[in-house]
Specification:
By secondary structure, this protein is α+β, with helices and mostly antiparallel strands. The protein folds into five domains: 279 residues, P-loop containing nucleotide triphosphate hydrolases (Rossmann fold, 3-Layer(aba) Sandwich), CATH 3.40.50.300; 101 residues, Translation factors (Elongation Factor Tu (Ef-tu), domain 3), CATH 2.40.30; 69 residues, Alpha-Beta Plaits (2-Layer Sandwich); 114 residues, Ribosomal Protein S5, domain 2 (2-Layer Sandwich), CATH 3.30.230.10; 85 residues, Alpha-Beta Plaits (2-Layer Sandwich). 26% of the residues lie in helices and 32% in strands. It is built from 16 helices and 40 strands. It has an eight-stranded antiparallel beta sheet. The protein starts with a strand and ends in a 6-residue tail after the last helix. 44% of the residues are buried. GO terms for molecular function: GTP binding; GTPase activity; translation elongation factor activity. It is found in: Cytoplasm.
């Protein structure tokens, strides 16, 4: 038997020195990837190991100690959860890794959404004990929507009750995906000692005495060879689907080298046809370096992705971008943070080269932004760099109005890139400053939170004058209030959380709206629009159709009409709740009396859509949540009875180890304070996770309470 080979993690993979200066990295070496999963599956623990083994940090931060580098916010350290997506850069093998660690809690799903929009690949983490959980399904769907190639890591193989095969089966059944196992575990639960690399046909173990820094590779033990050979045969069969030569050799029974199999599997991964699966225990420092190898081997560089299409802001003409530092600059803002009152804007650079002092056009807002400084971000620390090139993720200062989803372009070639899908907030809370002199500080602080978070909204109740916050859930708003106190010193009084309903329409209506306003000695302002509003199927949101700009109506005027209609829909028509599942068509804008001003068109459009919606039979929709409960079987009857009282619908039950798992849908209005109720019913042994599913017709009593006719 040949002696085992040793690998030390810092800067070495397959015998090659890895660390390169940042300014020498070719685009082909970049891996922009995120880590996504359900809460507590181990995202941040994996991130901390990646930083440690790459040499970026010299001490492992632990989530349970509140010392994780990537969880830098005080609220994250105290609660042991990730709240905001954190970015960092490190090196492994011949690659520069731009990593984004994302939250797992449903209230912060916008952090995953905005990350998926700019990532080239992802690691999806699943617990070997819990398997595919509700938030796992949500983030997987988000990655599907953006066609993000993924590799999977089944974590916690060392835990009691670990069953990686069950987790694999759930990936197939719940995610409709094709996972491909590239490793086998050596031992399970407390006897987990390492993995078998099926491509190299080697045993991989991790030295415990040096926190897993030393990786040992040795021959597969004799007793495991039959299982390994069978698993490698299955792996080869999958690889043959993506390489004709591999297929021919496979059918002829010829041996196929690991590198050829790896290349074929990479093609399948980049097309999102398959998802390579790796095993380990991040907390026990086992399996991370092979996972880092897999990021380099299977996830794409920016050069390997289909060209992104941008559209001219006025003509709508499409143009495919090339990931070329010499091309005109195009970048997407995917995150904004307020630091000491100033904006720090995170950008994915898709083409061109970004330099300090550059004047860029924000195509959506028709303003010019001047870049001051450019940084790579390491959690909450900055490293100033001389430029950001195509394929990179950077942060900049100097932007004054740019928000999440905006495009920054070379002014000579303006384009608008596809933005983000922002989920609708479903919970509201009334707040007021405890001290009268803090009111202005309260409003300005909330405005900064609005820069950062597209799912957080603020408005004033026209009847009570109260400031109303809306967000994705109780925890989301709780974090906002905590940050108000810590970061801005504002103490507030709060009301009880309330559900944010939505208005929608029964039938279609056309309305002609005329706007007229005297302007003193100047010419009166006049505008006229013919609108049609009507219902859409559930889940379609608001669709506004504005005719293309035709002289004398400019693109600026038509853009103003669209924004005004959008604001009118957000204001609602009867109850103050936003409209949804509604289409608005502008049928006619007469210009016989002269070209209307932007102000007049704005007034006619906003008033017209509100009044038309009032005539179209408005009624309320309520948010419905998908619920997954885990509890001991002896408490099942009591919990099911409680769900029935809450108008819940049980959609499935299964046993998961020693616990009973219940999946149900429940109106959000019934879920405030449910954790306390569940703990009482299960003597502290029950838990649940919840995610937004969609809107359904609200009960008759809710309609009547808001002055609307029941459905």
């Amino acid at each position: 038997m040949r002696p085992p080979t040793l690998r030390f993690c810092h800067g070495v993979r397959r015998g090659r020195t890895t660390i390169q200066p940042l300014d020498l990295d070719p685009i082909a070496s970049i891996r922009n990837f995120g880590i996504v999963s359900h809460i507590d599956a181990g995202k941040t623990t994996v991130s901390e190991r990646i930083l440690f083994y790459s040499g970026e940090t010299h001490k492992m931060g632990e989530v349970h100690d509140g010392l994780a580098v990537m969880d830098w916010m005080p609220q994250e350290q105290e609660r042991g959860i990730t709240i905001t997506a954190s970015t960092t850069t490190c090196h492994w093998s011949d690659c520069r890794l731009n990593l984004i660690d994302t939250p797992g809690h449903i209230d912060f799903t916008i952090e995953v959404e905005r990350s998926m929009r700019v990532l080239d690949g992802a690691i999806a983490i699943f617990s070997a004990v819990e398997g595919v959980q509700p938030q796992s399904e949500l983030v997987w769907r988000q990655a599907d929507r953006y066609r993000v190639p993924r590799i999977c890591f089944i974590n916690k193989i060392d835990r009691i009750g670990a069953d990686y095969q069950q987790a694999l089966q759930q990936v197939v059944e719940r995610l409709q995906a094709r996972p491909v196992l590239l490793q086998l575990p050596v031992g399970v639960e407390t006897s987990f000692a390492g993995v078998i690399d099926l491509l190299a046909e080697e045993l991989v173990s991790f030295e415990e005495s040096d926190l897993g820094r030393t990786v040992r590779r040795s021959p597969v033990p004799e007793e495991l060879k039959p299982e390994v050979q069978e698993a490698r045969l299955r792996l080869t069969e999958v690889a043959a689907d993506f390489d004709d030569e591999v297929m021919a050799d496979f059918l002829e029974g010829r041996a196929i080298p690991a590198e050829r199999l790896r290349a074929a599997l990479r093609r399948g991964t980049l097309s999102c046809a398959i998802f390579p699966v790796f095993l380990g225990s991040a907390l026990r420092n086992k399996g991370i370096q092979p996972l880092m190898d897999a990021v380099c081997d299977f996830l794409p560089s920016p050069l390997e992705l289909p060209g992104l299409v941008g559209r001219h802001p006025e003509t709508g003409t499409g143009q495919t971008l090339t990931c070329d530092p010499a091309a005109p600059l195009q970048a997407l803002a995917f995150k904004v943070m307020a630091e000491e009152g100033r904006r720090l804007t995170y950008l994915r650079v898709y083409s061109g080269t970004l330099k300090p002092g550059a004047a860029l056009l924000n195509s959506a807002r028709r303003t010019t932004e001047r870049i001051k400084h450019i940084f790579h971000i390491h959690a909450h620390k900055r490293e100033e760099i001389p430029e950001g090139r195509a394929g990179d993720i950077v942060a900049v200062t100097g932007c004054q109005v740019t928000l999440t989803g905006d495009t920054l372009s070379d002014p000579a070639q303006p384009l608008v890139l596809e933005g983000l899908e922002v989920p609708e907030p479903v919970v509201s809370l009334a707040v007021e400053a405890k001290a009268a002199h803090d009111r202005e500080n309260l409003l300005s602080s909330l405005e900064k939170f609005g820069w950062e978070d597209p799912t957080f909204k603020v408005h004033e109740d026209p009847e009570t004058g109260q400031t109303i916050l809306t967000g994705m859930g109780e925890l989301h708003l709780e974090i906002i209030l905590d940050r108000l106190s810590r970061e801005y010193g504002v103490q507030v009084k709060t009301g009880r959380p309330r559900v944010v309903y939505r208005e929608t329409l029964r039938h279609q209506v056309e309305r002609r709206e005329v706007f007229h306003r005297e302007a003193g000695d100047r010419r009166p302002e006049n505008a006229e629009l013919l609108l049609r509003v009507g219902p859409l199927p559930r889940g379609k949101g608001v669709r506004i159709q504005v005719p293309p700009p035709l002289a004398p109506l400019t693109s600026e005027l038509m853009s103003a009409v669209r924004r005004s209609l959008q604001q009118g829909c957000e204001a609602g028509c009867r109850t103050g709740y936003p409209l949804t599942d509604v289409k608005v068509d502008v049928l006619e804008i007469p210009v016989e009396g002269g070209v209307p001003s932007e102000t007049a068109l704005w007034g006619a459009a906003q008033r017209g859509v509100i009044l038309a919606a009032r005539e179209a039979g408005p009624f309320l929709l309520e948010p419905i949540m998908s619920l997954e409960l885990e509890l001991p079987a002896e408490h099942l009857g009591k919990v099911l009875g409680s769900l029935q009282q809450k108008h819940g619908r049980v959609e499935g039950m299964e046993e998961r180890g020693a616990v009973q798992v219940v999946r149900a849908t429940v109106p959000l209005a019934e879920m405030f304070g449910y954790m306390t109720e569940l703990r009482s019913a299960t003597k502290g042994r029950g838990s649940y996770t919840m995610e937004f599913k969609g809107f359904e017709v609200a009960p008759a009593e809710v309609q009547e309470r808001h002055g609307l006719l029941p459905c």
